[in-house]
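note to self — DONT lose this again. spent like an hour looking for the file last time. sequence + predicted structure for the chain T wanted, 76 res
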Amino acid sequence: MQPAPPPWILHARRELGNRIRDARLHADLTQEELALQAGIDRTTVQVTEAGKTDPKFSLLLRLARALHVPVKDLMP
């Protein structure tokens, strides 16, 4: 079992999730619509936006492409 991540990582996860949510809302998409466009499950969008996971880079690429933004714009 891995130790809990330090607070600064938890903060960065939440910031990443907030940026993804902001971009999704700016694009006027629901979580379901973003998931469909990114080819992922809606729950993946949900937990990523909530900052509850460490998303793989490939997931960030999918989300950025579906949101029509550069990946760097999603990063905290």
